[in-house]
Specification:
The chain is α/β, with parallel strands linked by helices. The protein has helices at 8-25, 27-48, 51-60, 104-114, 121-133, 155-165, 181-189, 233-245, 262-278, 287-309, 369-376, 400-407; strands spanning 96-97, 118-120, 143-147, 169-170, 194-195, 198-205, 208-210, 219-220, 229-230, 315-327, 339-352, 355-358, 387-389, 394-398. The longest helix is centred in the middle third of the chain and has 23 residues, at 287-309. The chain is globular and about 60 Å long.
Length: 451
Amino acid sequence: MPRTPFSRSVVTGIASALEANLKASEPVMEQLWTAARPRMLSTLARAEGSSVMRNVARGSGSSVLQPCTCGKILCPGHARSMATASQANAVQPAWATDERAPGLAERLAEVTKHFPTALSVDDFISRVEVALAGYGFTGDNAIAMSNLCRDESCLILEDKIEAAFGSCFSTHGLGGVLTCGVIGMKAGLSHSPVVGGKERYVFFSFPHIAIDSDGKVGAVSRPNRPGASAACGALIAALGDLKKDGLESHCKAPGQHDPLEPEYSILKQRIARRLAYEKVNPTDMTLVDITKAAERVISTDLEYLISKAVDPKKADYAVFTGVQIHNWAADLNNTDTPSLEFVGVGRSYVVVNGEKVHLDLNKVPALSPRQLQILASASPSDGKAATSASSGKLVQEIPREYLMKRLGGALSAAHVDVGTPAWGSFVKKDFADPHAGAPKLDENTSFVWNK
């Protein structure tokens, strides 16, 4: 059946309805829509195959947000870390749940018990993109700097970031610990586009945690691996060590680390120093607690490295921190249970022309389910994902086919031939290493220099 052309009246109706709703709510939201309108409409136009909406997008122009009467864009006072956000139970909204996605609203409610600021990953990225558009940041004129855990499960969030901002310069570390240093960060910054005489950077930094579809904290199902796995394994191990050994034995001076466990020992040391500063007893902590502590530590480390590496006279930048949350099916073999991905929002701000402005992503209007489906289709996932909508948030499924493909899981029974390959007779089994006596990474070797 041929697709019905998307008429100018329909386009005008959509735009008018959105603008009317925004004018009726807050002036700042109207400005956000004006700033992001061209990109959103052009994306919708591509999905609908209509040149009419492209013309609307091109004719809209861009706009830079103006401060409100309080002197701040959006609202002041939102600089605090996600880890210190209010734990008060919010009034549950009236959910309008997609019939294809039963239980998604309840899944979000379960996650927000632990992380009150949680947004579905597609909802989070769309709000970030809308907010940044008002300050001149786009995927064409900025470079994204991502700092996540090394766990392959974290690639889901990185894919979403790269769908909006292009390929990232990554500074990933075990548990999300930052070990790249100033030189490593400057290396990534030097790759930024230069548009209008300015470089622009968008920093994303998130440790991660799993809360499966049954609500079990720390549990995650992995393709072709029986039973439940865990995330974040490094933070689980660190919590166990801190409970067993106490903080003092791990509060070492910066620069000291285990050569066989460099990232893990640095992660533990930095968390231990922070907990000692905050006077927190690790024996009272849960996995959620240490994950939030890791977010505070890593966010502080990121901002310190930025202060050493970024010149605000030649560059504008944005920072988004928080916690990545895997809310996957408790058993990935169960095709009836959708897998979800969330972000517990932490620090969100931009620095433009040296002026820091804090952003409240909750003030950025959520897209409609249809719009979110279209924008999410630009990421590597295939097919239509189940979506649940509320008065303030959207929840979207991570399609199982994409998840399994991205993590390397077979969608059908795999065959492994354990017999000797035909080329086995050509395999060399004996090898004399000419560098067998070279110093090992955990050896303190005394070198003798030739005179």
